[in-house]
Amino acid sequence: MNSKQQTVRLSDGHFIPILGFGTYAPQEVPKRKATEATKIAIEAGFRHIDSAAMYQNEEEVGLAIRSKIADGTVKREDIFYTTKLWVTFHRPELVQVCLEQSLKKLQLEYVDLYLIHFPTSLMPGENYFPRDEDGKFILDTVDFCTTWEAMEKCKDAGLTKSIGVSNFNRRQLEKILNKPGLKYKPVCNQVECHPYLNQGKLLDFCKSKDIVLVAYSALGSHREKKWVDRTSPILLNDPVLGSMAKKYKRTPALIALRYQLQRGVVVLAKSFTEQRIKENMQVFEFQLTPEDMNVLDGLNKNIRYIAASDVKGHPDFPFGDEY
């Protein structure tokens, strides 16, 4: 079954494929790998491609998309492409600038979804990670409601079909939803979500507001030293996932992905290995029993791989709240 038949309707009427291909890679991975992997993903049936300005690979990802359009594999309207506003562009006058930079790199006329990548703003400038002489991030204070108003203008300008957020907690979502003069509400909230951090309460809240939850790090994490605590347990080594993988004759990764789909979560699968990229499409070929879904729910340990502790002191740091 092709993923493009499996979509969820967003609150603005557009449709998002429930399985997406994540393109983030650690710095040591050559950028050309993003082109190769994205081509393989599209050939395998992925129609939802997730990237971001911060990943600094949009030229390569755009090249892959355009080449698959050129060879007739897909049309532009078949692809659902997500990019994200980086934290150094939160000031309202920079929001469209960031999107236009992405479009120029992609060589596309529009994106399907534009997200505020993270609620905490950093000082604008050439550097994506501005630090002072002590190595600490240089924070900026921007009311993300004013950032959101600039996001709405990007939608009105036709540069993006839909707008949403990423890494926002319930309180921050409510701040936007209750904003005077709100024109468009966020269609989704993309957050870290996997059996060790199942985001049950945030998922319930988002469903109650017709906001789609999108899961990143759904297979645990790439364990990149600068972002992830290396002592944290490896999700895919969990014995429960292992025994379920045997039961369903699938991989632990497929069990973790299927778990999200059955909860009504849009899930991103990230791999640069051809076999795994193709394998991840098998998520549509089986179903977990309600009993097994309950067992997976029971794995929750509130383990957050991407803790963003470098910006803990920012007033908009999102992970201090329960959810």
UniProtKB/TrEMBL annotation:
Residue ranges of domain NADP-dependent oxidoreductase in the record: 19-300
Site (Lowers pKa of active site Tyr): 84
Alphabetic keyword roster: NADP, Oxidoreductase
Taxonomy, superkingdom: Eukaryota
InterPro entries listed in its UniProt record: AKR, AKR1C, Aldo/ket_reductase_CS, NAD(P)_OxRdtase_dom_sf, NADP_OxRdtase_dom
Protein's UniProt keywords contain Glycosyltransferase: no
Chain sites annotated for binding substrate: 117
Any Pfam family the entry gives: Aldo_ket_red
GO terms, molecular function: oxidoreductase activity
Family: Belongs to the aldo/keto reductase family.
Species of provenance: Meriones unguiculatus (Mongolian jird)
Keyword Signal attached: no
Name of this protein: Aldo-keto reductase type L6
CDD domains for the chain: AKR_AKR1C1-35
Catalytic residues, chain numbering: 55
